[in-house]
Structure formats: structure tokens, C-alpha cells
Write the C-alpha cells for this entry.
Amino acid sequence: MKDKKTLITIIVLLVILLPMGVIGTIKNFSVPNKDEVVDDNPNKNFIYKNKLYFYLDGKLLSTYNCSNCDIANVEIDDDVYKTNYYKNGNSIVYTVINNYYGIFKENNEIKLYNLVSKSVIDSYEKIKYYKTLSSSKYLITKKSSGYGVIFLDLSNKPIANEYDYISVASHLVDGILDTSKFIAKKNNNWYILNSDGSLFIEPVGEEIVDFNDNYVITYNNGYHIYDKNKVEYLSNFPKTKVYAIDKYVMVLNNNQLFVYENCGGNILKYLELPSYTDIYFSVNKGKIEINADGNLLETLEL
């Protein structure tokens, strides 16, 4: 008899509690978690109703409440010097860098934003990158203490913000800008920095405009070509511009192009070029492409 009463009690409790459990489960799935990102942005704009929306491949990763925010524009200041930098970038300006980082401008500061923790992790006066595919996810940043570099793919630790100027040489290989090295200036010295911040060569007192593994191109009342032992080459050769790409040095004298691999040896190639305003060189499938004013002039098989 006692067992029968116990059984009846259990059945009654199940009848009462089971629906409550089902209701609780449904409620748990239907009510958003307080950390869940809610997409109330009908046109998926970056800025909507005083809020930033960080989308990657159509997926909303995070938001940020802000009444005075905008896109963080790039400021390329390389024309102050003679650096052979990449000028033909045309990709969209970053708002989302990857699954973890976004970037925006708030008031007069550029903010680096952690999309996961929803927190600002650093602020800058300005940023620079060259709006093309690159070998690392980098940002050249400017603070009151100077220029530095951060790597948002965590491929390297940051280069400290202690330089007067930092740039990337226009070394485009198969459509990818090589960001394994940076040209930098501090006080009266010029540097080539590896991406881990170490020195590729000893500092020099002349402005560095380009380089490859064998030669450094500088500017000091004209262009100069040095090897790593600081021996100068082609010192009496007329030069209106000098580029280094892959293992080659491209010497321009107005519309005349002289190509060297060994600057102490013979000319490898000579070309007469048509008139141009701007010119750069790149490597594509092992061949050197000559681009002038956005057009491919010639492909060299050397």
C-alpha cells in the first residue's frame, strides 16, 4: 500500500514538473544570451543609429555604441621622403581586420577594437597600410611617441612606437606586398628592420629609399647604391631614380632603364621607355613586370 502511494506521488510530480522543464528549455533557446550580438541593422551599414557594426563575410561579429565615430582612414605620408613605396592600392579600407579585431575612428583617435571582448585595446593618432594584399596583417601606427608596427595575425610581436617614420618598400611578388622588412628613420639614422624588430643592416646616415638582399639604395643629393659592406657602386653613373626588386637593381636615367644583378659587373638589360609620370616594378611568376602610370609596359625574363 505504501509503495502504491509512493508511485502515485511520483506520477503527480512528473505531471507538474515535466511541462515546467520543457517551458524552461524553450525559454532558454528563445531568449538571447546577454553577450549574444543582435543584428538590428537592416542594411548592414558600418554605422547605424549611433552604433558601429562589425561584419565579416556578411556575419555580424560585434558592435560598439558610439555617437561620434567614423571609418579609420589611412594616411600615407611617404611622399615626405624618397621611399619607393606602393602607390596603386585599391582595396577597401579596413573596418574589420579579422575575426578578432576591428578598427575605427572615435573623435580624433583611431581605436583598435577587440571584437570578442568588446573592448578598445589601443589608440593611435593615425594608421598606415598600402591597401593591397600583403604577406602579413600589419598596421603601421603613429602615437605621440612615434611610429611602430603591429601584426594582427600575431605573426610577430609589435615594433615599438619609437621611430620618426616607417614605410614598406614596394616589393610586390605575385600580387603580394612583402612586409617582412620595413624602412625606418629615428633621429639622424635610417634603418631596415626585420618584422621582428631586429636590424637587417646596421643603421646608415643617408636616407634609405629601397633595398634587396645585396644592395641598399640611399638618397643624399642624388641616388647611391651600396652593398652591405657600405661599398658604393655606379657612383659616376647618371641616376634619376633607382629601384631594387628581387635580386635586381633598376637604374633609371630619365627614360633609359639599366638593369643590374651585380652592380660591379655588366648591364644585364637595357631598355628605352616611353614617357611616364610614375613607374614601379614587380615580380610575377618569376618575371619582372614594368608598370608605368598603372599600365604594364613590359615583362622581362632575366
